[in-house]
Design brief:
Helix content: 25-40%
CATH superfamily of the largest domain: Alpha-D-Glucose-1,6-Bisphosphate, subunit A, domain 3
CATH class of the largest domain: Alpha Beta
Strand order of the largest sheet: 1-2-6-5-3-4-7
Number of domains: 4
CATH topology of the largest domain: Alpha-D-Glucose-1,6-Bisphosphate, Chain A, domain 3
CATH architecture of the largest domain: 3-Layer(aba) Sandwich
Strand content: 15-25%
Number of helices: 14
Structural class: alpha/beta
Largest sheet: 7 strands, mixed
Radius of gyration: 22 Å
Number of strands: 19
Shape: globular
Distance between the termini: 29 Å
Length: 451
């Protein structure tokens, strides 16, 4: 079915544009009806847990969702600001029927979104999302709860502490970060309290930035998508490592002690090799995406591991991991999924696994985290207002010619963003000039088609 609301990562759009209180109300009612378990005992009421990041619009969306869920008889637990992986974990551990995260991840404050998790803590399948989508557009007045069956809502204490303890338990219990100087950038987002606290409790000296949310400054010049502040702070404080999370803390990028960035591909290689050495790697493979650097694929092959590529999106990565029985996967952007611990990307847990390897090795981050030489990779975006620029005949011709330029010596990936009206054009190969020419030719055609 053609989708109006759900994209690659839940529902996302501009607050009071695509994402309105009315839509959130309908999502609450629709999802509540889909996840009401008929086999539950009368004394065990249906329950949903809702978390959010720090955007101003989170208040509006949270209250509208509460109204929707309680209207169909679901009780609601509210955590306040908490990372997305924390909501996924609590959904499962608290035996909730459904989990909801209100966030637009790395987007600016005026966007927001609704991410849904099933009772197992996994993001929903396409089929379940389609079922909810149908109900959002339907008249649900006949399915509302009777007055005596309406749901209740309450704020719960201790959610942040539970998540911190969960993250710490992914490490060996004797591991200490004593003596480590860590800069942590929380993007003025959902992790602004839990991430600095977790590192401090493990013994590190912590220098936090991006921990003063005001409803408007989430991801603004801080966080994993704007890591310049992190790198500068690492150099200023002479820190051992810098860790930058995004607005909902499901992704991470690392800065070494020199203030140089380490992307998700390097982290995947690091964790996969560490797990292999410890006998923890479930399969001799790592799941990445079409955006994963060719250098990662070559490096994994050199240590007898295979890179399996999926479409972009941590949900697609996780689906392939579950299908193949892999326990390490992720994206170049820093979504690292370690399914022994988490059912979604978890920036804090991934950072802790990196720190465990660093501590064990006794070497600096710049040595430990540099696993391979990345081949030149260029990514450019073209924004469009409407239509489907990729269907343009001149664009198709430009793509064909660009692929011929690469001549089997590189890769060309062109895809529409699942979260904003943007076409992303990526090419990579050993010859940078050839890669640049391939990307620029496609970009030029797209700009004409999108004008």
């Amino acid at each position: 079915m053609a989708r109006k609301h759900f994209g690659t990562d839940g529902i996302r759009g501009r607050a009071n544009g695509e994402i309105t209180a009315e839509l959130a109300l309908k999502v609450g009612m629709a999802a509540g009806l889909v996840f009401s378990r008929a086999d539950r005992r009368p004394e065990h009421r249906h329950q949903v847990i809702i978390g959010k990041d720090t955007r101003l619009s989170g208040y509006m969306i949270e209250n509208a969702l509460v109204a929707g869920f309680t209207a169909v008889g679901m009780d609601v637990l509210l955590t306040g600001p908490l990372p997305t992986p924390g909501i996924a974990m609590l959904t499962r551990s608290m035996r909730c029927d459904l989990g909801v995260m209100i966030s637009a991840s790395h987007n600016p404050y005026d966007d927001n979104g609704i991410k849904l998790f099933g009772p197992d803590g996994f993001k929903l399948s396409d089929e379940v999302e389609d079922e909810i989508e149908k109900l959002i557009g339907a008249d649900l007045s006949s399915q509302l709860a009777k007055p005596g069956d309406l749901g209740r809502a309450k704020r719960i204490d201790g959610a942040q502490d539970r998540y911190i303890e969960f993250a710490k338990r992914t490490l060996h219990r004797n591991l200490s970060l004593e003596g480590k100087r860590i800069v942590v950038d929380c993007a003025n987002g959902a992790s602004y309290h839990v991430a600095p606290q977790a590192f401090w409790e493990l013994g590190a000296e912590v220098f936090p930035i991006g921990v003063d949310p005001d409803g408007f400054n989430i991801n603004r010049d801080v966080g994993s998508t704007a890591p310049e502040a992190l790198c500068a702070k690492v150099r200023e404080m002479r820190a051992d490592i810098g860790i930058a999370l995004d607005g909902d803390a499901d992704r991470v990028v690392i800065a070494d002690e020199k203030g140089h960035l380490v992307d998700g591909d390097q982290l995947l290689a690091l964790v996969a090799e560490s797990f292999k050495e410890d006998g923890r790697l479930a399969k001799p493979a790592v799941v990445g995406t079409v955006m994963s650097n060719l250098g990662l694929e070559r490096h994994l092959n050199s240590v007898d591991l295979k890179l399996i590529r999926t479409k972009v999106g941590d949900r697609h990565v996780l689906m392939k991991m579950r299908e193949l029985g892999c326990n390490v996967g992720g994206e170049q952007s820093g979504h690292i999924i370690l399914s022994d611990y988490c059912n979604t990307g978890d920036g804090l847990v991934a950072a802790l696994q990196v720190l465990a390897v660093v501590q064990h090795s006794g070497r600096p981050v710049s040595e430990v985290c540099h696993r391979f030489e990345a081949v030149p990779q260029i990514l450019k975006n073209v924004r469009y207002k409407s239509g489907k620029p990729l269907d343009d005949a001149k664009v198709k011709s430009a793509i064909t010619l660009a692929e011929k330029k690469l001549n089997g010596q590189g890769r060309l990936v062109i895809r529409p963003s699942g979260t904003e009206p943007v076409i992303r054009v990526m090419a990579e190969g050993d010859d940078r000039a050839m890669v640049e020419a391939a990307v620029d030719s496609v970009i030029e055609a797209l700009m004409l088609a999108a004008a």
